[in-house]
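User: I'm putting together a small comparison set for a docking exercise, and I want a reference complex before I start. The sequence is below, and the ligand is 1-deoxynojirimycin. Could you produce the 3D structure with the ligand included, as structure tokens?
Assistant: Of course. I'll restate your input first, then give the structure tokens for the complex.
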Amino acid sequence: MKDWLWWRDGVVYQIYPRSWSDSNGDGVGDLEGVRRRLDHLSWLGVDAIWFSPITRSPMADFGYDVSDYCDIDPLFGTLDDFDRLLAEAHERGIRIVLDWVPNHSSDRHPWFEDSRSRRDSPRRNWYVWRDAAPGGGPPNNWYAVFGGRSWTWDEGTGQYYLHTFLPEQPELNWREPALVEAMHDTLRFWLDRGVDGFRMDVIHALAKDPGLRDNPEIEGARPGRFGQQHVHDENHPDVHPIVRGIRGVLDAYDERMAVGEVYLMDPTEVAKYYGEGDELHLAFNFSVMKTPWDADGFREQIERFEGLLPEKYGWPTLVLSSHDEPRHASRYDHPEHGDARARLAAMLLLTLRGTPFLYYGEEIGMRNVEIPADRLQDPVGINIHPKASRDPERTPMLWDGSPDAGFGSSDPWLPFGPELGRRSVAAQRDDPASLLCLYRDLLALRRETPALHRGSYRGLDAPPGIFAFERRHGDSRVEVALNFSDAPQRWQGSGGPVQGGLCTRSGAALPGDTGVDLGPAEGVALILPGG
Ligand code: NOJ
């Protein structure tokens, strides 16, 4: 293994491009806006940016419905803007990871327009078409994630087409070799331009049961997506050779990375996507993100995944927030200890073994923003229920205290929310006690401490409410103790002397040895002699 491998040892920062920085004042963020704000990322010390989709899209699902895999959507800029941004990011040592959406395209993609034009279109089989069930109706009992059935009737050709998400997101058929080749080419397009990696959307759904059999119903459950066992519409064993094929494309290039959105709550299944080092480099382990605020809960999930990962090729991922989940500062909020919890969560994320993925705005503790009904954008909020909307975690970045938050438009596509003027990068950058400065300090500590960026993990005994672990790499050793309880706790640790580290409590001096009194939602990461 090389000494420093960016995607294993570094930290990735997710930008939801609509909401990060708007250079042309149209209310939606763009690539030029990002370029102008690269200083923030250099200052923070991240190693890579993952962009949610910036490719051409009619935006039915805000970019997750792609109408051209090889061009930038005009809302975000041009290919030239992208090349410039990539070059400037690389100059700063920041890698670029693109979102790649291989499970479905937009219904406005020329491939689909061709496919639906006639039954004998050469691209008919690039999508999944079926006759109606005998007696009429959809070919099987599958339901879409975003509401309704997974099948939409096409009047023109008299068949149904499959879609796991919106009808505007028809399923690509990975059992069709010509489609596979075309999709591999879309990867090569970006790899040749110098893109460092891809976040691969719903990668576990690329293969379906070849006979498209009905999913078994869960006894007593309400009919619908959640009333079925998803044995035939996702995580089919045939997905693994498909992922190996994708990996083969990346392996023809130097140090590129694939991280998969394997949205399965069973970590045993997630771990399989690392293959024998010939599938994904990384797979998101969402079970940690789904864990309530509880020391034992976090420990259990972390250790479970550690135990499942292939020893030689497995490397965990650490995620607490994303564009699909309520922000963790809101999920874990508390009337008294909310801010302390956000600080403790930062220490959890940045001291564990694995590649951390930060979601924009979490470094300043952005909370979910309540979106008035008439401002809803997310099709999930509109089709299913406003409470299911993902808009609250997608609001514009709060850069400073001005009326446009420094975002670039005072009338952005989603409202800023009540923290406009109260929470911002500018205010926190000047305050060494801020959450933002804690993030930067944790990133720096992680980078300079081999035990933290690539060391082993070992759980340590600790009183109830505390999650404690040791990280170790060669002579580098760190003990971390995180108090998830709302009461003060004493933690003993293995001794001392403490040679460095960080406390989440602002202004707290480092202890001389590992015996520390931790206040509610407080943690320490202590560098200790190796051995
Ligand atoms: C997962 C993405 O993260 C989500 O935002 C999107 O809506 C679905 N996949 C469909 O592409």
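The first helix runs from residue 6 to 9. The chain has a mean pLDDT of 97.
User: Thanks, that's exactly what I needed.
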